[in-house]
Queue: 2 jobs
Job 1
Amino acid sequence: MVEAAAGEQLFTMPSLGADMEAGRLVAWKVGVGDAVKRGDIVAEVETEKGLIEVEVFADGVVRELLVEPGAKVPVGTALARIGGAAESGAAAGGEAETDGAGAGGAARVDVAYAPAAAPGSAPGEAIGEPVESVGETAYGAAPGKTKLDGAPSTPAARREAREKQLDVGGVRGSGSHGRVGLEDVRGAEGDAGGARVASAAATGARGEGSAAEAGRVRATPVARRRAEERGVDLGAVEGSGRDGVILLADVEKAPVGVTGPAKTKAASPAEAMRAAIGAAMARSKREIPHYYLTHTIDLGAAMSWLEARNADRPPTERVVPAALLVKATALALKKVPELNAWWTGSAAPPKAEVNVGVAISLRGGGLVAPAIPGTDQLGLDALMAAMSDVVERARRGALRASEMGSATVTVTSLGDRGVESVIPVIIPPQVAIVGFGTPSERPWVVDGEVVPRTLVTASVAGDHRVTDGHHGARLLARIEKLLQKPEKLDS
Amino acid sequence: MSSYRDAIRSALRQLMQEDERVFLMGEDVGNYGGAYAVSKGLLEEFGPERIRDTPLAESGFVGAGIGAALGGMRPIVEVMTVNFSLLALDQVVNNAATMRHMSGGQFEVPLVVRMATGGGKQIAAQHSHSLENWFAHVPGIKCLAPATVQDARDMVLQAVADPDPVFVFEHQLLYGMTGELDEEAAPADPWRAIVRRPGEDVTLIGWAGTLGKCLEAAEALAKEGVEAEVVDLRCLRPIDFPTLAASVTKTHRAVIVDEGWKTGGLAGELMAGLMERVFYELDGPIRRVCTAEVPIPYAKHMEDHALPTVERVVAAAKESLRG
């Protein structure tokens, strides 16, 4: 395990969404000796969701780059050492291969990942060679150090192997489901082949603190509960507590859905993304008791106003109806804050800021919903620019880490698909999602007359653990009201 | 600024000025001014009818207090230390605590018993124990343990206002402590615990004599980057588990600092109550820092070693971070 020295911080592979297990470092944007400050983009990381620019959260000087571009590593793996801001990076400069940052590193990136930079290419093409064994990377924390391939292993076994600096290639586990226990590792020590079948008798002599050998993972009550909530397999989590006990913090930084090293099938990026979406949606449908409401809204006033507003503007500065809908949703959420929240396992305290995640379908298949920070605060032009920017970057695979996990609610609008309405599925840990069908001209009764009007069917799915249909109804009613005074949305 | 001792006296004086049914009795509360000088000057102010010296007979004068309370008075009985209160346990457990229930609600016992508790002053085993848990065990009475100057005043006022027997445990090391006292302030609900210092990483639970140690430990931990939340239990019966549980739900770890002995003590009760309520929030076993299982020694170095120390609290908190 890489540990930070005094005065240093480790820059680690971030979790860019609750369903991310591992990421591939595509390129370094900095080199050893470079000064960085919080918010600087220091690396590009490729996930199932595409290429993402990753910000650093510390100020300082890059002392050492620990992972080569191209390597796929689990979430939480140390990628670089960042020294204190006041210290010089010069001392460390000589020993790092990526010294000078620019030419060498960038060249490698260009060769391997050139398509990623090409706007408009499908994600499937953009993402280069995917994936070695997900399970293996999830296990073998630092490459080159001890790893246990092929079977689940207990925390105590991994700790023993790590401490003894063993490289046990094929230890055969004697526990249930072939789980590798402490005795198995001890037995493998000094055995060149590294494989040995531990006899049942050998496990008889275990002392206190090695309950893990019996196949029971030692984890604290809250760690166990959180693992269940998040779909984390405790057998695949390294415990940092005394005697290798798994603590809450270990679970929270563990990859979701890893079911042990048996999961070795290489997946294409498109498959991986599909699997990630599947995992998130399956969890949503499994855990969240959804309620659904729909409401037809007269967009007549909004469309006329928008048409007038757009009339004397060049096409690049025009605002599309979707921006109005997003803005109306953001403002409406300020009045129904219960729906703008994250489920924390027992409650969902409302979030102070409204960051609407905009669902964007990707041309190569798949879906992302990056957040637009402070959506309710943006004027229509600013919001339109933000939406265009995020759509463009999503399609070329250049979303930022901070956009991937910060949405407080999602809006899905199937405007260009021509369907009448959408009954959406909540993206955990959010507690609501708002959908809009295609605005279209339909018959509508105004003052006793049937007249053609532009209508949109709005819908909301809410988490019944947190709110009731009453809240959803208030939200839709509020959106409708806001859309009748479109000029008020432009501030 | 006022001392803890002055704060209690301020409450006693106000109570006696406002309600002629209130009187104070106990060993040496009159001419001597109280073993810890709490009632100094009150005899001159209110006279021997209302500031009554008693014989050295706890069972007798606590019993007399119960009788006076049944008869409509509002007696405040001072017992010199919790060690001596054992002589009055029969009156407490069999009479004070039971009257309301055994009379079908016809009689109430609005009695207040104040007593010093705790060690640290080298007055040896028979004057230094913390036996609050003996009282906190008994249904029918309430137990308060003020740890601040403000609580010292407020809790005596609220104890007298309560229609049932209330026991106030005053840690003997606190009498000289000074702090802010607002005599006009609306008192905090005496039956609820209070978070004295917010933190995210571990909950330190203390009361009376151990609250200060918890706060000091929290300061030391903060220097090492550990943010401890300090909860002042304040009321030992009934125990405010919702506040404790909320804190542990936030921090997932707890250290209970109890000057009583570990075996059969309040710390164990708090652990069990938390385990029943928030087991699935715990990120490791709850820890206890208690007094060594010996009669409190007289020798200073031995007494210091026997009582909970800031260092032991810090060590237990750090240990809890590792599960």
Job 2
Amino acid sequence: MRLNLRSVVRAEAFVLFIVVLLGATALSLVSSQFLQTFNIYVLLYNVALSTLVAFGQMVVVATGGMNISLGAIGGLSAVVAAMLMEWHGWPLWLIIPVVLLGGTLMGFINGFLTVKTGISAFVITLAMASAYTGASMAITNANPIYGIYESVRSLGQARIGVFPWPAVATMVVMAGLATWFHRMTSGRQVLALGGNRTAAELTGVPIGRRVIQAHVISGLIASIAGFLTMARVQAGAPTIGNAWLLPGFAAIVIGGVLLEGGKITIVGVLLGVAILELIANALAISHTDPFFVTLLQGALVLVAVILGQARRRMMAKGRVRPLGALPSTEPRAE
Amino acid sequence: MRRPNFITIWDRAGLAVVVLSSWAVFAIFAEGFTSKFNVFSVGRLVSILIVVGLAQTVVMGIGDINLSVGAVGGVVAMFFGWLVAPTQLGTAGLASGAPQDVTALPGLGINWQFAFILALLFGAALGFINGWLIVRSGLHGFIVTLGTMGVFSGSMYIITKVKAFRNLPEGFLGFGKMKFFDLLSPLVFIMLGVVVFLFFFLRSTTPGRQMLASGANRRAALASGINVNRIVISTHMLSAALAGLAGIMLAARIGSAIPTIGTGGGGDWLLPSFAASAIGGTLFTGGSVNVVGTMFGGLLLGTVENGLNLLRVPGFWVQMITGLVLLLAVILDRIRVVAVERSRMGAAQ
């Protein structure tokens, strides 16, 4: 694709980029704390972890589904990693693959059940979420496991200036997703089936296998996010991932991902996360009630989806409405 | 006349059999399960669960989902607490004898029966916001109620500063502890009233039938002159009022209005609300609800929770089992629907 100024300005992500830029500028003018090295480091760290969560959700949303169990997978991965360290003393080079494999397996269970039963991903992942959370509660007896290795602790705090080392994982995942969705057949097929399942099926896309793949990738990303969160909070707490649902969806709808499936935007999601984290950062700097974050995330979800819907309607207005089409009460996607 | 066979009978009565056998199992193995006090406390627990389940069932009837049941329950319980709590916090009469309870909030001190009605209306108003946003935006209830969930509970946390309304009026506390025949809580009768009302509302009233028609086939409902938008909004109002009722019932049970009602403490309502509905045979695709089924579904979940507690099984196992039961219920439902259709076709030949 040729990159010229007009196409950049017309891109949806451009508006988000301007918002991030304006927000950051305003914050740095208002508060002297904002541009301090440590604050920028914390901000980037938050963005890195939240981006993983949002990507984990986006992959399944691309198929037209959703993953309610994302946080539960993250929590169980963190707990299992901490358990293997404290109780079994496994070497780290063994723990990391096992944890990632565990996340992959949980994603596979989600995808397999969704495909084989034909029941919506919402119900399957809601039910599986309680199973995974139950398992992490059972392992830890609802208490955090603190005995994690020194190397993992230092990974959780490793940084160069403002750059947190764990963000490398986010960048790898981002590159991987970009390649998968834009350059590989299976990724393209996931978008195709999210956009129009019947058409995709008719053109020979193996629907079931692609849906399972998306769930597997989502589980893998969730376990990476869970492991990194554990390294950051320095404990394998079963509560890790409890609150991933709302911010994950907030970031992807702000970024411009279609909840009906078929359309993703990696840069948009990153910018969506940046907007959310800038707001959280501003609230933290100004010592505002932390519950404002929940309120604002909820409100931003509503604003983002309603604006997105309005924009789609405006674009659709130019076209001729098919005969007998009913206004605004289309049978909504499951 | 169709000859009844095993499948059609199981379709009607299977859940009741499962509930009764779970009672039998716990009566044998869990000591104290059949004691008068336990029956009383199971009755209160189950009644709240069933009303939460029904709040989800009605929305599922129109093919939608409501993620904000827990948030609405908590917000309405806190609103109710604010209305009835005394205007000045007393210093005497506290159990600990402490000079002042720093985690308690003062309220308006109005009559609790009147406040009960106001709180239900407030719940319906929150439901109106859900329904209105869904209708105006044309989006699925999932994302809208996910957003309002954050807005509702976030605002409530900010306003109350996560403090609680204790020192609720004696009349209301007495209501929560009241026993009929030394066995049944009035909450059970409230729940039964709601079940009977919804059963007849959805079976034999025009708005009830219109709700199900909109859930089954939105276009057909529109074409036959049903104001689907109004139905969607009023269903969400009904759902939120039921969630609010459950919140007030829980406040009556625990004797105070705390901010974690519906979202924390006793576990999030989201999972049990879907589990009770799905176990009862309400479909996620809309158009068909089973109010009595939700009652049995809630009965099963509450019984299992209580029985496992008596067997000293930790609480998180209950959550895990609830999830697996939900999974099993939806998968069995798939199989059941197929089996029932097949046996009907067989009988018609």
